[in-house]
């Protein structure tokens, strides 16, 4: 294989793996959307809140796994209070009103996290190096970082388990019923509380895992919130209600932005990955407003 | 909400006169601390003007746009380049052309609004935010090939007289903001504003009455961006006194969004109330931090708390009073007048 | 009403012709190969059981839905590119089944939006309050005040319509449609959910408008008594097809109609 083609694949694979990290953020978003039909703009803030708390607990001396569990517990509390204090009072309001409220929620979470744990950038060492794996580099000539590979594997694992949870179990069916019509669902005996507990816990775990992977790469800092914003174009491409959509959208965004950055970026002074995902999403929107995997919504008058 | 017919009552004229006397005479004569002008009044007026822009597109036309800062940056850099490159162009001329340039960009980025809404449109407008800042940052021409990245804004010169002292700059801004606010009120109360609100409240019905969605939305985007562009130019030339793209990042867009929503969607006075609150609240917190707690609370914690308060207020207003502080103010006034009438 | 000898505006030639319209949503047929016409100055009712395709029919005429087949002609011109906006410009206005008012705007503002097609002032004129804008606003306001008076809603004209009771909202919506001065009004269940008194008033408004301005009306209504009272001719739809078309008395005795609609849903 020519070195140019090899280089292209390297860029592509790097982009795909980085894209799985976007997917993880988007996944949390999809979970909440499926259960509450809410665009949870605060998902990015939840990622930041989760990983900052996690690092904070470890700094307090908690061992890795205990800190992980405590953080998940904390995220469940955050999720349930959100459900109780923000979403439920706004149940019959317009989508836009809910969206605004979750923007407010994002501010609250970002502020609380920084008030509790401070604003300085933390390093998070997961014990996974962010260097190319020599074995792969030697055998096929592509440089892939172990962290990227881990992120890919973790994302794949989470998607499969969530997909199984939501398609192969009764919980999944209940979830869909709840999202469609919470009143009707609870009147036929679907335990709303349990489902909400489950969904918010799952979203919390996803946020924490995404935060850990991002944090290990870029440091645990406020900029994570901006990175998480890229989950929005991912969701637009994949569709807001689709778990596979979140993954495919993430892969598309991740790979396209890396390829564009490497091949086109230099002509314009670089840093086009800052806006390329959004522009890509806009073009997608104009062609396919419901996303790749979303359901087409027919507006009735 | 009162009827929005574009005729003005005697009360309107009285309120206007009181505000004008206050703004042009009493404040310049009584306030003698530069701090108040440079750190509070000047940014307040600039950001309120940008918030009016946000009101036009979001509060009146109901389009969830999140990119006010991008258009402010466009206006600021347009003004810088116009004054730099066009000899003899008066400041107000440059200001108007800057607004028009921002409006033209606004039209382009408003086009997706014809097909998408809600969070989808929000993402599309985020594209404008990031793209505009990137273009300004990456193409040296906009910054006159200045390598430091921070350019000093030119002095404001009107009819050969420089306006550089805080009071002078305040008066220049006050003139611009007054004129533009009147224009905004005229539009909002007139047939223009009714078309915007019709599109906001029920687009299918608006269309069935002959309101063109295309024309109305694009018009709203253009006018909104015009206001943001002029506000951005004023902000850069009087408050920042420099031009740097990062000053107009996404955080500023969020700030203006908050000013718009907390102030009260679909109101012009809400723009001033919201901008005032978002600007003054941190000042108050800092004051409390320094004077009540004597610096015992870290400044970063104070700014984090301020974020928490803004977020909580956003949620509380969404739940209890989606029409924001302007509505609270109206209710208060009504209660007061009712008591008086008894 | 059927005796049309003593009306101000004699019923004339077809103003609206619906030819072989078919509309389906994802394979489900809402309207199948339907044709009927509306004569100038008449009050035309469309009736039929729920889901018969009545509202879909209005939405086709108004350009909100695009029928897959067939054509619609208004005043002799075949409408090729139909959008609600263009239809409004041609002189067709409407009300909606589930109220489509501008909720946060006052009643008078809602009605003023109906004057859109009579407003030529640009945003620039309005912003600077140039004479053109002021003059126009004055004229429009006067017209709308007249409508307010006619509909007897002076007391609530400054109230945001979202806060009004249902019956009044329906009236405001009629007012908005009237403000357009359209020659054809499509009224989608203008009396749904009203009590007898409110219905009677609404009927009076509709007939008065028809009598005074000669406005052609197409209305969807469930209350058979009302339909028989105020309409000149009736179209009966069932499962998207026409099963009866003619004067009220004729339709009333049509066996198909009795089976499909009257006999089933109204036991009396």
Structural features, described:
The complex is a heterotrimer of chains A (301), B (342) and C (268). Chain A has 301 residues and is mainly α. Chain A has one domain (3-226). Chain A is 73% helix and 0% strand. Chain A is built from 13 helices and no strands. Chain A has helices at 3-36, 43-59, 64-87, 95-117, 134-140, 146-168, 170-180, 182-187, 192-218, 223-229, 231-238, 243-263, 276-287. The longest helix of chain A has 34 residues, at 3-36. The termini of chain A are far apart. The mean pLDDT of chain A is 84. Chain B has 342 residues and is mainly α. Helices cover 74% and strands 3% of the residues of chain B. Chain B contains 13 helices and 4 strands. Chain B is globular. Chain C has helices at 54-61, 84-90, 107-113, 123-127, 131-150, 166-179, 196-213, 224-230, 248-253, 255-265; strands at residues 14-25, 28-39, 43-47, 69-74, 77-78, 92-94, 184-188, 216-220, 233-238, 241-246. Chain C is α/β, with parallel strands linked by helices. Helix content of chain C is 38%, strand content 23%. Chains A and B meet through helix 4, helix 11 and helix 13 of A and helix 5, helix 10 and helix 12 of B.
